[in-house]
Design goal:
With about 375 residues, the chain is an alpha/beta fold. Helix content is about 45%, strand content about 10%. It is built from 16 helices and twelve strands. Pfam families: DNA_processg_A (PF02481), HTH_IclR (PF09339).
Length: about 375
């Protein structure tokens, strides 16, 4: 009898370079420039072997004590287990050279991520091509949360991907704004993609992982610390076309994202707030230092979008009937004094620079339009009641 049992599908073994980079992502902290410089000379597999063998290459920063620190963390590391762990939660580990790798991260130089652990749908490279960061204070005001949500929703409706850090406050409002209109959003975490932090945003982070993308430089199971948040910000800045700061105090971490964006020649933008608010002080300082003031998504996309295709509409006040007057008529109207006694035609002619006959003609036009009235030989403005 034929065996009807389906054949067992065995996952293919990860290639050595991916395994080595997965190990290095657990061996070092994000943005480790020493490892970054080494990876410019050798493959990741050779770097790992050199650490095991204690072979210190001749380049700045890697000395014997640092090498000993790497070696002390080597025992017990299992990159294959990490790769399987992220696969089981629907994720993957992206490394330079993959078609999904965003090449703009290479602008970070030696601080470029060793690799990125991600969960969610869509190509990170393609999504990042049209992305903008919306960041700000964790302890934001109702005004800040409203503005961040509205801006992000508008950006998502225009086809832009909203990137933020999945933290409390402005980050959460930005993600929710994009999700609310069925948009795409990316959460860049300071912990493993299988760790929901902060706890109060568990459901939001889950939704981002389903509807958008979660990514981190840190391997599965890693928890955040103060320095990892700061290092995470450089990835947000490099990944996106520009950074918008909605609310930030003078010492806010969101400002570090904007500063990195500026250093990387990305657009930096700020939303003004009340001058009495401490949470606006950092944004106002950012604007004074050269960031662009923005108030709506159209102004953001005009800066970071395609030249000539993403122009913001010109803002103008309402058109008043007086604005439609012919130039000569407008000049005569400007010459008529507001005083109750008015002025004779001769005086209006001198003031407007027009011949008396033409002034008289224009005055009668203005009478018909209800702007002026005649009292004897004098003309005066009609007083509106």
């Amino acid at each position: 009898m034929a065996d009807l049992q389906q054949p067992l599908v065995v996952p293919s073994e990860p290639e050595p370079e991916r395994l080595a980079r997965a190990l290095l992502s657990r061996l070092s902290e994000p943005g480790d420039a020493v490892i970054g410089r080494w990876l410019r000379q050798l493959t990741a597999a050779d770097v790992v072997q050199a650490i095991r063998d204690g072979a210190v290459p001749d380049h700045p920063g890697l000395d014997t004590p640092r090498l000993a620190g790497y070696q002390a963390r080597l025992p017990g590391l299992d990159p294959a287990e990490d790769l399987e762990r992220v696969r089981l939660v629907g994720g993957r580990f992206i490394i330079p050279g993959d078609t999904e790798w965003p090449s703009q991260l290479d602008d970070l130089g030696d601080g470029r991520p060793i690799g990125l652990w991600t969960t969610g749908t869509g190509s990170l490279r393609l999504l990042a091509l049209r992305s903008v960061a919306v960041v700000g204070s964790r302890a934001c005001t109702a005004y800040g949360a409203h503005v961040a949500g509205e801006l992000s929703a508008q950006l998502a409706e225009r086809g832009w991907v909203v990137v933020s850090g999945a933290a409390y406050g402005i980050d959460a409002a930005a993600h929710r704004g994009a999700l609310a209109v069925g948009g795409m959003t990316i959460g860049v975490l300071a912990c493993g993609v299988d760790v929901a932090y902060p706890k109060g945003n568990v459901e939001l982070i889950r939704r981002i992982g389903v509807q958008g993308l979660l990514l981190s430089e840190l391997p599965p199971g890693e928890h955040p610390n103060r320095f990892r948040f700061v290092l995470r910000n450089r990835v947000i800045a490099a990944l996106t076309r520009g950074t918008v700061v909605v609310e930030a105090a003078v010492r806010s971490g969101a400002l570090s994202t904007a500063r990195r964006a500026r250093d990387l020649n990305r657009h930096t933008m700020g939303v003004a707030g009340p001058v009495t608010s401490e949470l606006s002080a950092g944004v106002h300082a950012l604007i004074r230092s050269g960031a662009t003031l923005v108030t709506e998504a159209a102004e953001i996309t005009e800066l970071i979008g395609s030249i000539g295709d993403d122009l913001a509409p010109e803002r103008a006040g309402p058109v008043l009937p007086r604005d439609l007057l012919e130039p000569a008529v407008a000049r005569v109207l400007e010459a008529v004094p507001a005083a109750p006694e008015g002025a004779p035609v001769e005086r209006l002619a001198r003031k407007s620079g027009l011949p008396p006959d033409e002034v008289l003609q224009r005055l009668y036009e203005l009478v018909s339009l209800g702007y002026v009235e005649r009292h004897g030989a004098h003309w005066r403005i009609v007083r509106r009641r």
